[in-house]
Amino acid sequence: MTIEGGATDDRVTLADAYALVTPDDSRALYARWAATYESDFVGSTGYMIPDRVAEEFADVAGVLDGPVLDVGCGTGLVAFALVRDTAGEGVDWVIDGVDISPQMLAESGRKRRPEGTPLYRRLLEVDLTTDLSLRSDLLDARYAGIVSAGTFTHGHLGPESLSALIQLGRPGAIFAIGINAEHFQSRGFAECLHDEVERGRIRNLAPCIVEMYRPGSEHEGEQAVVAIFRRA
Ligand SMILES: C[S@@+](CC[C@H](N)C(=O)[O-])C[C@H]1O[C@@H](n2cnc3c(N)ncnc32)[C@H](O)[C@@H]1O
């Protein structure tokens, strides 16, 4: 997929991911990327937005009395960071994950907590561009927290999918949604979020800007907005 010096190889790159257009494109790309996503992409680029989203979420959430949904969970990095970074704080996170890619879900299904139990309670194959009001399996969970990293970005999900997510949180649910900063700007996420505040669907909106990659990364300086808010 990558063309370097005229040669074609099979390695998936960030540019390939940003060039996706349809949900079927996502299914096809992540089917190929799942096995090497962490060892190749995450390891070589210093990708750390899952850690940052988990940190921002944990800061606001404290101890929740309900489950958390990881949106576009991929191989499970946000949930892994959340459990790892809050170990010893007396929080027993119950986490479900949704993703369009069965291959990425298979990777997250292999992740374990320190005590050896599965990281996720449930992993569901969901295309987040479809009508979520039909997903009683998600609506009935009444999520107390909703997190996401790397999924609201070029070629993936837009502001309409963020609006649709609100219904999955119960009243007062805390959201920490990482959004690629360029995508945030170009797709009008600020307007979308302010509109949701005006309509009374969300409150306590507090966006913050974070680095997506570690210092020294070829992507150093690329940023994300983490939109923190509560469902009204
Ligand atoms: C860059 S990965 C991020 C994965 C993980 N959250 C992380 O930070 O490592 C983006 C994820 O979004 C998922 N995705 C893309 N389009 C989607 C859609 N329409 N519905 C649900 N998941 C989608 C992909 O399958 C992939 O796992």
What quaternary form is this?
single chain
**Number of separate structural domains:** 1
CATH topology: Rossmann fold
Largest sheet: 7 strands, mixed
Shape: globular
**Structural class label:** alpha/beta
Distance between the termini: 44 Å
Bound molecules: S-adenosylmethionine
Number of strands: 9
Enumerate how many helices there are, as a single number: 10
The SSE string, one letter per element, is EEHHHHEHEHEHEHEHHEE
Descriptive keywords:
seven-stranded mixed beta sheet; 26% strand; 9 strands; 10 helices; globular; 232 residues; binds S-adenosylmethionine; two-stranded antiparallel ribbon; Rossmann fold; alpha/beta
Structure description:
This protein is an alpha/beta fold. It has one domain: Rossmann fold (3-Layer(aba) Sandwich). It has helices spanning 14-18, 23-33, 37-45, 49-61, 77-85, 102-109, 136-139, 159-165, 181-186, 189-198, and strands at 2-4, 7-9, 68-71, 95-99, 122-125, 143-152, 169-180, 202-211, 223-231. A hairpin with a 2-residue loop joins strand 1 and strand 2 (7-9). S-adenosylmethionine is lined by residues 23, 26, 30, 50, 72-74, 77-78, 99-101, 104, 126-129, 149-151, 156-157.
